[in-house]
Amino acid sequence: MRTPSPESCGAPIDGWWAGAVRLVVARLCVAVLASLFVASCRTEPEAASSGPPAADQDTVELDQATRDHLGIEVVVARESVVGEPVIAPAVVELDPRRVGRVGAPVEGRIREVLVQVGDRVAAGQTLAWLYSSAWEDALARARTAAAAERSARAERDYAEQQLARSLRLWAAQAAGRQEVDRARLDVVVAKNKLRAARTELARARREVRQLAGDAAIPVEPRGLPLRAPITGTVLEREASPGQAVVPGTHLFTVAQLDRLWLVAEVDEITLGKLQAGMEVEFRVNAYPGERFSAVIDYIGDVLDPKTRRVKVRCDVENSAGRLRAGMFASLFVPVREPERLLTVPDTAVQELDSATVVFVPTAENRFQRRTVQVGRRGDGWVEIRSGLRPGDQVVGRGSFLLKSAIVLRAQPAED
C-alpha cells in the first residue's frame, strides 16, 4: 500500500512533514545514546564472569573506541598539602525575620489587586481589596458599638447635669433630699452603661483591627484592605481579581532584601576554626571573580549523621541588591596551618544509589565503582577519608558518564 504524501492529504509541507521528520530525528538520537551508554558500557561477558552478580552490577566495561570517544581520564589519588581556605558549599537564603506573608483572614473574594511582583511597598500599604460578608458584619458591629458609646456618653453627661441642678435646688431648699439621691443614682447607672458601651466598642474595633490591620473604621469601604506587614519588595503574588479565598489562603510575600542569610555546610574537622562573629568570605556563581563578605551569626548544634557536616549561618549585607535568594555559593573557611590530605579531583566523585562513589580501573578498559567517604572540598578537589589509598587510580573526567551507564543499565528494558 502506498503511503500518502503530505501534498495528497492536503497538509502543508512545513506542518505534517516537518513534524514527521522531527519525530524520526528524535528517535534516532535516542537510539544513538542508548547504544553509546548501554551497548558500549556493559559488564563482563557471562562466559568470563565467575563472581557474584553484585560485582557485575558495579562494573562497566568499554571498548577502546568508546573510551576514546567519551574522553575517559584516569587520575591518581594523592596526598596534597592544603594551606588555602577550605571551601564549603552554601546557598543564599532569605532572612525569615525580614519576611512578611499576607494571607486571607476571612472567607471572601478578591476585588482588586494593586501591586505586582518586584514592587517596593511600605509597611501598612494596601496590596489588595477583599470583599467579605464577615468584614461587612464586623464593620456593622463596630459602627453600632460606636453609636451606642456616643449615646451612653450623652446619657452620662445629661445625668451629671441633672445631678448638679438637683444639688443647686437642694441648697436653695427648692428640692428635697430624695430628688438629689435619685439624680445621683441616675449618674451611677449612666456611667455603668457608658463603661459597658466602651468595652463593646473596643472589642468591635479590635476585631476590625485584626482583620484590616488598622483601628480606624473606613467610611464607604471598598472592601477589606490587605496590607503589607513590613516595608520591602513583593516577591510573590498569588492573588487575582475574582479569586475566591478562605482563611489562611496565601496571597503575597514581602521581604526586605538589604540583608540576607548565607547557610553553609561545614565539615566537622573545620568547626574548631570557626566562631560566631567571625568575618568570612564567599563567592557566588553569578560573580565568579568576586568575593563577598559575611559575618558568622550561628553555628549549628547538631551534625548531619550522613554527611558529618554542620550548618553555619552567616549574615550578609546586600544593600546593593546584587545577591539573590537561592544563589549557590562557596564559603571560604580559613585554615591556620597547612594540612596533608588525600585528595582527588572533584570530577571523580559521584552520588549513586544514596552513596558517594568513585570509579577505579580494574583491568584494561574495565572500571568498577567503589564507595568512599569524603571530607573537605576545595577549589577543584575533594578530600577522601576512606575507600582509597595514596596512589590508587580513579576516573576523573568521564566518571559521570560511567555513572549514567550503570543507571541506564539498571532500568527495566522496554518491550
3D architecture notes:
α5 (133-171) packs antiparallel against α6. It is elongated and about 125 Å long. The chain is α+β, with helices and mostly antiparallel strands and 415 residues long. The chain has helices at residues 6-9, 13-39, 53-57, 64-70, 133-171, 177-212, 399-410, and strands spanning 59-61, 74-76, 78-82, 86-93, 99-103, 108-113, 120-121, 126-131, 224-227, 232-237, 244-245, 250-255, 259-267, 279-284, 292-299, 309-317, 328-333, 339-345, 350-352, 355-363, 366-371, 373-377, 381-386, 393-395. It has 7 helices and 24 strands. Mean pLDDT is 82; it is low at 1-55. The longest helix is centred in the middle third of the chain and has 39 residues, at 133-171. The strands form 6 sheets. Strands 4-13-16-15-14-17 form a 6-stranded antiparallel β-barrel. A 4-stranded antiparallel beta sheet has the order 1-21-20-19.
SSE layout:
Elements: H1 6-9, H2 13-39, H3 53-57, E1 59-61, H4 64-70, E2 74-76, E3 78-82, E4 86-93, E5 99-103, E6 108-113, E7 120-121, E8 126-131, H5 133-171, H6 177-212, E9 224-227, E10 232-237, E11 244-245, E12 250-255, E13 259-267, E14 279-284, E15 292-299, E16 309-317, E17 328-333, E18 339-345, E19 350-352, E20 355-363, E21 366-371, E22 373-377, E23 381-386, E24 393-395, H7 399-410
Antiparallel strand pairs: 1-21, 2-24, 3-18, 4-13, 4-17, 5-12, 6-8, 6-11, 7-10, 8-9, 10-12, 13-16, 14-15, 14-17, 15-16, 18-23, 19-20, 20-21, 22-23
Helix pairs in contact: 5-6
